[in-house]
What we know:
With 118 residues, the chain is an all-alpha fold. It has one domain: 10k-s Protein, Hypothetical Protein A, Chain A. 57% of the residues lie in helices and 0% in strands. It is built from 5 helices and no strands. It has helices at residues 2-15, 25-36, 44-58, 77-90, 99-110. The longest helix has 15 residues, at 44-58. The relative contact order is 0.18. The model is unreliable at 4-21 (pLDDT under 50).
Amino acid sequence: xxxxxxxxxxxxxxxxxxxxxxxxxxxxxxxxxxxxxxxxxxxxxxxxxxxxxxxxxxxxxxxxxxxxxxxxxxxxxxxxxxxxxxxxxxxxxxxxxxxxxxxxxxxxxxxxxxxxxx
Length: 118
């Protein structure tokens, strides 16, 4: 399923002009918001949103720090998308930041690692 979503994202990226501008919080929230809040039905925006998020999570050596995020491996992509969209809704001041950074921040907020007592 993840591979299929990544292929869909690649096709969208090649077929849609100016996709590079869709990597900040403003543009990603536009694509993700409607599905999280039940306004839109899944379609191309949904595929791009969830594919982008899952692509960031799958990317080896990406911006997500394993020391800051302790997310279980079985969290569905739709839940990750909901966490991301709700985080951006609650923090509009952060929306100018790059998408991968915001995905990491939202997941670190939702799934923080416990600090070891010394």
